[in-house]
Specification:
Blueprint lengths: L5 H17 L5 E6 L4 E6 L6 H16 L3 H7 L22 E5 L5 E8 L3 H16 L2
Antiparallel strand pairs: 1-2, 1-4, 3-4
Helix pairs in contact: 1-4
Length: 136
């Protein structure tokens, strides 16, 4: 199984921090590996404490289901096929900010989760972090 390296995980965090600074937000940024284990984490100065857990769960959610956490959210609304899924796996986060990470061959190697601002900003920062891998 392909997996994210430490160097790659750190690059994802760095790219995410850069975007968060551009947006004037303070974020918690988590990167998990292919097994959904925490690989890298950064809580920017003064970022919300409650967002630590949320960022990790967003990353795990994206990796567990190999889709961005916001997509899980669309499928977990009342009447949809994954309704109440957020109660599984010791808690999932089903709103934007968790993004799947792929290597240059298109294999999923982990995920990044971001929390600390609006869900739109969280997703934008997570996508920016994922961009680090596209630069290789």
């Amino acid at each position: 199984m392909a997996d994210i390296t430490t160097k790659e995980a750190q690059e994802v965090v760095q790219w995410a921090v850069k975007k968060a600074e551009e947006l004037h937000t303070k974020m918690d940024i988590a990167v998990v590996d292919a097994g959904a284990n925490l690989k890298a984490f950064l809580r920017m100065d003064d970022a919300w404490l409650g967002s630590i857990d949320i960022s990790i769960k967003k990353a795990r959610t994206a990796r567990f289901f190999d889709m961005n956490s916001g997509e899980i959210g669309k499928l977990s609304q009342p009447g949809k096929p994954l309704y109440n899924i957020e109660h599984s796996n010791s808690g999932l986060i089903s709103f934007p900010g968790g993004v799947v990470l792929k290597n240059s061959q298109g294999q999923i190697i982990g995920a990044v989760g971001v929390s600390g601002s609006s869900v739109e900003n969280d997703h934008t920062v997570a996508e920016a972090g994922a961009g680090a891998l596209k630069s290789h």
